[in-house]
From TrEMBL:
<feature type="active site" description="Cysteine sulfenic acid (-SOH) intermediate">
    <location>
        <position position="75"/>
    </location>
</feature>
<keyword id="KW-0049">Antioxidant</keyword>
<keyword id="KW-0560">Oxidoreductase</keyword>
<protein>
    <recommendedName>
        <fullName>Peroxiredoxin-5</fullName>
        <ecNumber>1.11.1.24</ecNumber>
    </recommendedName>
</protein>
<dbReference type="GO" id="GO:0045454">
    <property type="term" value="P:cell redox homeostasis"/>
</dbReference>
<comment type="function">
    <text>Thiol-specific peroxidase that catalyzes the reduction of hydrogen peroxide and organic hydroperoxides to water and alcohols, respectively. Plays a role in cell protection against oxidative stress by detoxifying peroxides and as sensor of hydrogen peroxide-mediated signaling events.</text>
</comment>
<dbReference type="GO" id="GO:0005739">
    <property type="term" value="C:mitochondrion"/>
</dbReference>
<dbReference type="InterPro" id="IPR013740">
    <property type="entry name" value="Redoxin"/>
</dbReference>
<dbReference type="GO" id="GO:0034599">
    <property type="term" value="P:cellular response to oxidative stress"/>
</dbReference>
<dbReference type="GO" id="GO:0008379">
    <property type="term" value="F:thioredoxin peroxidase activity"/>
</dbReference>
<dbReference type="InterPro" id="IPR036249">
    <property type="entry name" value="Thioredoxin-like_sf"/>
</dbReference>
<dbReference type="GO" id="GO:0042744">
    <property type="term" value="P:hydrogen peroxide catabolic process"/>
</dbReference>
<feature type="domain" description="Thioredoxin">
    <location>
        <begin position="31"/>
        <end position="187"/>
    </location>
</feature>
<dbReference type="InterPro" id="IPR013766">
    <property type="entry name" value="Thioredoxin_domain"/>
</dbReference>
<keyword id="KW-0676">Redox-active center</keyword>
<dbReference type="InterPro" id="IPR037944">
    <property type="entry name" value="PRX5-like"/>
</dbReference>
<keyword id="KW-0575">Peroxidase</keyword>
Amino acid sequence: MSLTCLRLRAVCRAVGYSKHFTRTGTANMSVKVGDGLPNAELFENTPDNKIQVQEAFKSGTHIIFGVPGAFTPGCSKTHLPGYVNGFDKLKGKGIETVNCVSVNDPFVMEAWGKAQNADGKVRMLADTCGTFTKGLGLDLDVTAVLGNVRCKGFSMVVKDGKVENLFVEPDGTGLTCTLSENVMDKL
């Protein structure tokens, strides 16, 4: 378990938040292999640059990975850099785009991408209201620690608009099955 995850758990316990990582929408079921993507909009770099999810990923093979927070230690040291550094290998395996999603604003995602040298490799997509994340059923309530509902750590391979492979961190925040190396091994 990552140090970040351990810190999040400790802070949650300290503030008396008994269920520190919980799903917020009990009506939503988690996405599964074979499902289509939710009808949602993401934002790239600015609020004016809307990406309609179903349209953007309707053809070709793409990786979408989600993180609990931009600039968080584990996501900045391991998760995003793995996809940035592995971009050429992923392209060589037929991946058209690699996309990072977080429940943040587009300006934060753009700044994080620039800080991580993601330009031209990983698209930094903001799920400003968590609509995409909730539509997948991968929302994670970490309000006590990060201020709002975020997304679980996940990675998926999307082919022609359908989820072909799906990896979700068991605790929602760890750095195990969703890393680029794991996804690459399954391609």
